[in-house]
C-alpha cells in the first residue's frame, strides 16, 4: 500500500537553507584526501539533480558517504523524498519500493541485479566550475525529504516521515550538545551508514547544517578507523557504536587524538566508556533517540547515569512507555521505554522497555538487564537474551540466549548466570555461536536471532 505524505501545513510555510552557507569556502567533506568546499558540493548537487527522473521518491542506496550527501540533496532539490530502507537486502528494498509506486533507486555503483528503475550517479570525481553568484537553495520547512525505516529489532520495520523543518530542529539539539563539548567546529569520522537515522543525524545533517566537516569513508576495522582519523585535522569527532568502540579498545591500536566520541544504537557499557576515555583521551558521549523521534537526549556515561534532555523536550512517563514532545515532532510520539524523571523533568533514568519486561511467578526482570549480566561474565565477548514466540498454557514465554564466548561452554555460562539472576529467568535454550547477526549499526533484528537459534537447534 502506498504511503501518503501527510505533513502538517502552515499558512506561510517557512523556507530553510539546504546547507549552512555562512562561508561557501568552508570544507564540507574530505574525500579521497581532497577537501570539498560547500560551493563545490552544491555545484555537484545541481548537476546530479538535473539528471534525475520525474518521480515522487527515490531509494537512496549510496554507500559512499559523499555520494549519499550529493544524492540526498539532489533528490530534495527535485522535490522528491529520500527512501531509506532498513538494509540493502533485496527484499527490504523491494518492500520499500512496493510501498511507493513509481519511485526509482539511485546509487554510485553498478548493481547486478539492480532494483527497478535504478539510476547510477555520474562520476563525482570531476571538479565542476563554481558560479560566483551561487544562489543557496531554500527548502520549505514542510517538505517531506526522507522516510526512514526502523531496523526491525523489535519486529517489522516501520516507516517514519521526516520534513526539512523537523531535520533542522533535531539538528539544532545535536549542535548545541556538541558545541558544549567541542566548540563550533569539528571533523567527523563515522563508522555508521548514512541511511540509518543516527548516521543521518551525525554524518549528514551536521555537515550540511553546521560548521562540521565529514570524512566521506565508512571505516569498519580498527586500522581503517585510525587511518580515517589521521586524514582529518583536529578537533576530531568519532561517531560510532558500542560494537565498533569495543573492537577499537580490544585491538590496542593507537588513534590520533580524538576530541570526543559519540555512541548510539545500543546501550553503552559503563566500563567500556571509561576504558575508551582513558585510551583515546576525549569524553565518550552517548545520545538517546529513535528513528521515530531522532536524538533528544545525551549523557556522558562515565560520569552521569541520568540522561539530559535537549532544550524544548518534555517527557510524560506512562505505565507502558513514555510520551515524547520535542521541537522536531509534530505532536506527541510514544516510545516503549519506561523512564523515571528527575531535576524537575530535565533528566531521566531508563528503567527498561515495556516489551522487555518479564513477569514469572510474581517475579519481575527485564531482557535488557539480563543481557547486561550475561555480557558481564568473564570470557563472554557478545551475547543477547530474548523472548521466544508463543507461550505455555499459562501464557509464559520461554527465554533464550545466544552467546559468543570462545573457550567457555554453555554449562559454565549458565552457572555464572545463576549467581547473578533469579533461576526463573535463566535462558533455556542458551546456545554458543561464532557471531551474533548484527546489522550495519550493531542492532540485532529479531527475525535474524530466531533464525540463528533455529539453525543451532
From TrEMBL:
InterPro entries according to UniProt? AMP-bd_C_sf, AMP-dep_synth/lig_dom, ANL_N_sf, ATP-dep_AMP-bd_enzyme
Ranges for domain AMP-dependent synthetase/ligase come to 136-305
Q: Which UniProt keywords apply?
A: Ligase
What's one Pfam family the UniProt record gives for this protein? AMP-binding
Q: What's the domain of life for this entry? A: Bacteria
Q: What name has this protein been given in UniProt?
A: AMP-binding protein
Amino acid at each position: 500500500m502506498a504511503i501518503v505524505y501527510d505533513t502538517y501545513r502552515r499558512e506561510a510555510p517557512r523556507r530553510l537553507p539546504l546547507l549552512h552557507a555562512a562561508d561557501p569556502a568552508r570544507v564540507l567533506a574530505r574525500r579521497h584526501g581532497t577537501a570539498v568546499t560547500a560551493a563545490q558540493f552544491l555545484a555537484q548537487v545541481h548537476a546530479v539533480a538535473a539528471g534525475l527522473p520525474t518521480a515522487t521518491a527515490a531509494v537512496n542506496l549510496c554507500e559512499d558517504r559523499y555520494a549519499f550527501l550529493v544524492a540526498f540533496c539532489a533528490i530534495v532539490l527535485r522535490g522528491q523524498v529520500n527512501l531509506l530502507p532498513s538494509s540493502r537486502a533485496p527484499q527490504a528494498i523491494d518492500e520499500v519500493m512496493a510501498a511507493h509506486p513509481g519511485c526509482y533507486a539511485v546509487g554510485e555503483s553498478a548493481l547486478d541485479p539492480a532494483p527497478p528503475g535504478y539510476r547510477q550517479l555520474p562520476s563525482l570525481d570531476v571538479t565542476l566550475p563554481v558560479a560566483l553568484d551561487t544562489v543557496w537553495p531554500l527548502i520549505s520547512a514542510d517538505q517531506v525529504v526522507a522516510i526512514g525505516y526502523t531496523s526491525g529489532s523489535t519486529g517489522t520495520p516501520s516507516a517514519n516521515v521526516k520534513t526539512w523543518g523537523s531535520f533542522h530542529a533535531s539538528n539544532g539539539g545535536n549542535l548545541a550538545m556538541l558545541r558544549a563539548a567541542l566548540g563550533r567546529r569539528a571533523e567527523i569520522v563515522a563508522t555508521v551508514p548514512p541511511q540509518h537515522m543516527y548516521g543521518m543525524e551525525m554524518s549528514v545533517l551536521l555537515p550540511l547544517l553546521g560548521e562540521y566537516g565529514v570524512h566521506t569513508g565508512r571505516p569498519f576495522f580498527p586500522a581503517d578507523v585510525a587511518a580515517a582519523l589521521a586524514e582529518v585535522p583536529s578537533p576530531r569527532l568519532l561517531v560510532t557504536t558500542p560494537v565498533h568502540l569495543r573492537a577499537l579498545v580490544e585491538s590496542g591500536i593507537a588513534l590520533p587524538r580524538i576530541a570526543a566520541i559519540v555512541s548510539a544504537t545500543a546501550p553503552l557499557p559503563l566500563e567500556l566508556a571509561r576504558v575508551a576515555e582513558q585510551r583515546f583521551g576525549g569524553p565518550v558521549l552517548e545520545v538517546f533517540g529513535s528513528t521515530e523521534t531522532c536524538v533528544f537526549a545525551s549523557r556522558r556515561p562515565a560520569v552521569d547515569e541520568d540522561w539530559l534532555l535537549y532544550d524544548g523536550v518534555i517527557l510524560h512517563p506512562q505505565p507502558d512507555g513514555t510520551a515524547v514532545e520535542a521541537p522536531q515532532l509534530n505532536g506527541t510520539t510514544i516510545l516503549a521505554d519506561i523512564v523515571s524523571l528527575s531535576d524537575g523533568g530535565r533528566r531521566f533514568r531508563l528503567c527498561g522497555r515495556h516489551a522487555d519486561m518479564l513477569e514469572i511467578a510474581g517475579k519481575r526482570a527485564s531482557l535488557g538487564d539480563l543481557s547486561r549480566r550475561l555480557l558481564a561474565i568473564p570470557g563472554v565477548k557478545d551475547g543477547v537474551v530474548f523472548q521466544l514466540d508463543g507461550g505455555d498454557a499459562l501464557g509464559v514465554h520461554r527465554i533464550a540466549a545466544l552467546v559468543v564466548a570462545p573457550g567457555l561452554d554453555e554449562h559454565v555460562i549458565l552457572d555464572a548466570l545463576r549467581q547473578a539472576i533469579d533461576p526463573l529467568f535463566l535462558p533455556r535454550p542458551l546456545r554458543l555461536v561464532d557471531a551474533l547477526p548484527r546489522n550495519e549499526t550493531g542492532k540485532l533484528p529479531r527475525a535474524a536471532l530466531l533464525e540463528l537459534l533455529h539453525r543451532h537447534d
